[in-house]
Automatic annotation (TrEMBL):
Keyword Oxidoreductase: yes
Family indicated by similarity: Belongs to the LDH2/MDH2 oxidoreductase family.
Organism phylogeny: Bacteria, Pseudomonadati, Pseudomonadota, Betaproteobacteria, Burkholderiales
Transmembrane spans: none
Matching PANTHER family: MALATE DEHYDROGENASE, OXIDOREDUCTASE-RELATED
Source organism of the structure: Achromobacter ruhlandii
UniProt xrefs under InterPro entries: Mal/L-sulf/L-lact_DH-like_ah, Mal/L-sulf/L-lact_DH-like_NADP, Mal/L-sulfo/L-lacto_DH-like_sf, Malate/L-lactate_DH-like
Protein name: Oxidoreductase YjmC
The keyword Oxidoreductase is annotated on this UniProt entry: yes
């Protein structure tokens, strides 16, 4: 539906998907490749993760136009072992490479009970939870990770050498809400620090350090410094583990070898991802899994809430509720995102 200038619009999912596909086709992608990309980005929007949804057509589009991302990527999948897949993304759009790797891991897991896909020569592949949902709906539990541009200093260090690399976990519930956990390695995103600066507010000293590596409450100093990892040195170790799997073992770039898409938009990033999938049907019946997953959630829900207005939930419930609501009533899309999609689709 139409909206006044500057205000968001509610767009039916089918309509938004088609607009997104046409927009990426307008940027030079073959239609099926555009469908793969849009599958992930629209799921992100459905989850309410608008910063990682179709708004990404701005950054993806700029890099496609300057040749930093390959519009006609020829993705190759090799099988060096029965349960192992190696995916070369040919510098394609990240969600396209991610979907190829997810399908490769699913195919390996369907044959072996467990499947592991390593992807290289990729780019930013969106949030992890959409991949986790796709896998869960097909009956697979998953651990998925990606490395990222460096924004975190090594623990005790004074320059950015570690990526804010996300990792996600998903476990299917055949008769209820899937468990979906999607998390990056920093305490907060840089966007929260930017918002504090705009509002003239101080930040907790657990969010970031200044350029000398000292914790700060000044958002300006924080933006000139580095994000702090979750859990202190434990989060630092977890960030390194994700990069070892996603970057080093996949034969992609890692740590400071990863190029910044902001500083070098016309150069390949060579990001890496990993997809570890388990076919839960090899462990027991769908009824068995549903009963255990529902009991698992019930135990959590039964905990008396410290704030009655905020009952205990398990990860993924908020996103799945937003998905159901927006599928019924339309997806909220910012006016500038909608305008850019229409422009690339040749409608504006």
């Amino acid at each position: 539906m139409a909206a006044t200038a500057g205000s968001p619009s509610l767009v039916p999912e089918t309509e938004l998907r088609e607009l997104g596909v046409r927009a990426f086709e307008g940027l030079g992608l073959p239609r099926q490749d555009a469908v793969d990309v849009v599958d992930i980005l629209v799921l992100a929007d459905l989850f309410g993760l608008s910063t990682h949804g179709l708004s990404r057509i701005e950054s993806y589009g700029e890099r496609l136009q300057v040749g930093g991302i390959n519009r006609q990527a020829r993705i190759r999948v090799d099988s060096p072992a029965p349960a192992l897949r190696l995916v070369d993304g040919d510098n394609g759009v990240g969600p396209l490479v991610g979907m190829h790797a997810l399908r490769a891991a699913m195919q390996a897991a369907s044959e072996c009970g467990v499947g592991l896909a390593f992807a290289r020569q990729s780019n930013h592949f969106g949030p992890i939870s959409p991949y986790g949902l796709i896998a869960a709906e097909a009956g697979y539990a998953s651990i998925i990770g990606s490395n990222a541009t460096t924004t975190i200093a090594p623990w005790g260090g004074t320059d950015a050498r570690v990526g804010n690399s996300p990792i996600g976990f998903a476990v299917p519930n055949p008769d209820g809400a899937h468990f979906l956990l999607d998390m990056a390695m920093s305490v907060v995103a840089r966007a929260k620090i930017r918002n504090a600066l705009k509002a003239g507010q101080a930040i907790p000293d657990t969010w970031a350090t200044d350029a000398q590596g000292c914790p700060t409450t000044d958002p300006k100093q924080a933006l000139d410094g580095f994000l702090l990892p979750i859990g202190g040195h434990k989060g630092y170790g977890l960030a390194l583990m994700v990069d070892l799997f996603a970057g080093l073992l996949s034969n992609a770039a890692y740590l400071t070898h990863v190029k910044s898409w902001v500083d070098a938009p016309d150069e390949p990033q060579n990001l890496g991802h990993f997809f570890l999938l388990i076919d839960t049907r090899r462990l027991g019946s769908t009824q068995w899994l549903a009963e255990r997953m529902n009991d698992f959630a019930a135990i959590l829900h039964a905990s008396p809430a410290a704030d009655p207005a905020r009952p205990v939930i398990q990860p993924g419930e908020i996103e799945l509720a937003k998905l159901a609501r927006q599928r019924a009533h339309g997806i909220e899309v910012a006016a500038d995102v909608l305008a850019l999609l229409r422009q690339h689709a040749g409608q504006g």
